[in-house]
């Protein structure tokens, strides 16, 4: 029998998984996390979480870890996008099997990768999903499998958001495109086409949104999908301006991102290959509204952009 406030978090050492795990623990949940070598984790990472040795690729490990849980947060991804296409779907199948056995609801952090240019610029939860990229196609397949499983009693919650940024965000455009972690900001490298809007999502806000929705289980459909508005930057200047204000350098130079280098190194650097595939999201605007989300929560958790950017730069060690 599932315990009402027991959660298993897959990917708890990552940005969104770790943030959700901490917030659940703060709200009185018993939080478990799966890791291949828990002994190597820091005391900070272990705090408030029961760590279980296991591998998200092994279905038996996930099923055992989820026994008695009412929630499984599926926030696990292969590090650095290595073998992404080979590992993502098998890991999801492990989670679906565990949810089927335990009766838990699955929570999945979603992305905008599901959508192709035919759905732009205004996208809602029902917009057609016709991605033109390999990564987008995998995202669509993940959601298709979860929706199919929901018809068999496996409940799912998906929260789609824009590009993540935050103090503990993992692979993201802010820390791998705009600034260089670990050193004071001396220049901003902006990937977007001049004058093109872009949607950002502050990771702590995403985690808080997920937890608030989890707390409203009775208001959720068996297959529930919500979009976050996050931070909409209409032409790219808002994020650049926030970085300048956070660093106290109003004259900080902002130049174009070196896409030529990404193209050149893509054959040997998996991360660059993934970045290059998503370039279209920087060339055309895509904006998600949050009307459905507000209908359930009343409001969307929202940290002001300047505060979010300052916290992010501080977490990256980029404020000097």
From TrEMBL:
SUPFAM superfamilies: NAD(P)-binding Rossmann-fold domains. GO terms for molecular function: aldehyde dehydrogenase (NAD+) activity. GO terms for cellular component: cytoplasm. InterPro entries: NAD(P)-bd_dom, NAD(P)-bd_dom_sf, NAD(P)-dependent_oxidoreduct. Pfam families: NAD_binding_10. Gene3D superfamilies: NAD(P)-binding Rossmann-like Domain (3.40.50.720). Residues 11-125 form the NAD(P)-binding domain. Coiled coil: none annotated. This is SDR family NAD(P)-dependent oxidoreductase.
